[in-house]
Amino acid sequence: MGKDIDLQGKVALITGGGQGIGKGIAKVLGECGATVVVSDINPDTTAATAAELGAKALPLNVADQTAFNAAIDQIVAEQGSLDILVNNAGVYREYGGAIETITPEMWRTLWSVNVDGVFFGCQAAARVMVAAGNGGRIINIASTQAVSPGVGVTYDGSKAAVVQITRTLALELGRHNITVNAVAPGATWVNPGDPPPIDSTAPIPRSGQPLGDAVASRIARIPAGRWAVPEDIGNSVAFVASPLASYINGVYLNVDGGWLTE
Ligand SMILES: NC(=O)c1ccc[n+]([C@@H]2O[C@H](COP(=O)([O-])OP(=O)(O)OC[C@H]3O[C@@H](n4cnc5c(N)ncnc54)[C@H](O)[C@@H]3O)[C@@H](O)[C@H]2O)c1
Question: Ligand 1 atom closest to Cα of 24?
Answer without folding.
Answer: 16
